[in-house]
Specification:
Elements (H helix, E strand, L loop, with lengths): L2 E3 L1 H8 L15 E2 L2 H15 L1 H11 L8 H13 L7 H12 L3 E4 L10 E3 L2
Parallel strand pairs: 1-2, 1-3, 3-4
Helix pairs in contact: 1-2, 2-3, 4-5
């Protein structure tokens, strides 16, 4: 089953959180966006250095879903509607992307708990 992996999920998979083991990073089983890739790369750069950041970048970039104008505009609408949740733009684009591709949005971000189409995993 294909899932959308947000930044939180990708990092949890990378650090081998047992709760995320079922979300195997196979080409046909996961998608994410360029914005999540940027966040993961930055996280690794900050915590593990350039070499590890570049390594995770090469792994994750294989799972990129195409982002179009519809997704960008809908992400902005979603962000506006949920301003109090303080979602990042990457979160909004990711969530809308998951809806467009009709796949579960996998995250451990508490702000998404209870949203339709979200698989909340800690």
């Amino acid at each position: 089953m294909v899932s959308f992996l947000d930044t939180y999920a990708i990092i949890e998979i990378a650090i081998d959180n047992p709760n995320y083991r079922k979300y195997v990073l196979e080409h046909d089983e996961a998608i994410t966006t360029i914005f999540n890739l940027a966040e993961v790369h930055f996280y690794y750069l900050k915590h593990y250095g350039q070499k590890e950041a570049d390594k995770i970048y090469e792994i994750v970039r294989k799972f990129l879903a195409p982002i179009d104008e519809f997704i960008l505009k809908e992400a902005n609408n979603f962000k506006l509607i949920h301003l109090k949740k303080r979602f990042s733009f990457a979160d909004c684009v990711g969530y809308v992307t998951s809806l467009k591709f009709r796949v579960k949005f996998v995250t451990g971000d508490y702000a998404f708990k209870g949203f339709a189409n979200v698989e909340y995993v800690r």
